[in-house]
Write a structure and sequence with these properties.
CATH class: Mainly Alpha
Helix content: over 70%
Distance between the termini: 43 Å
Shape: globular
Number of strands: 0
Structural class: mainly alpha
Number of helices: 9
Amino acid sequence: MTPLWDATRDLHHACEQHPVGAALASGKPPLEWYAKWLTALFQIHLYVDSYIPDSVGRTDRLEADILAIDLFVAPLDAPEKYIDLIEGDPLAIAGAAYVLTGAHLMGGEVMRRRLDGYPTKHLLWDDRKEALAVLQTYRTRKDISTQARDCFAALLAVMDEIKEASNG
């Protein structure tokens, strides 16, 4: 069976190459894009965090970052559609936890340093070693490839929604 990271590599790269993903990775995204991105993550984490260990939950930290930006953005549709898709499905929640925890822990460490002047509490960890151990429990699963791909697809849909709103 293909390792989870390999099964999701194409969508992971698609997220990094998306104009919104690339702007976030640059460390200089438009503030409105960043606020919308954090709001979308908050929407998803608000659901997922009730099912995962507290050590990797991000809801409270995302809320603090959103409040620090002090720019109201309406909730997005793509996260709500994704929540509807995963609701009540333990495999889907595990797939989401793998993607989100991995993103916040691994890429997030690099992003936190680049996002100078942007709030990044959601990328800080009380116990990084413990969070990495939790991530490892998801990484080694062989039953959540489709669900992890669904999460990456949802993040791409979020990015599309953010980009489309800025063009309209």
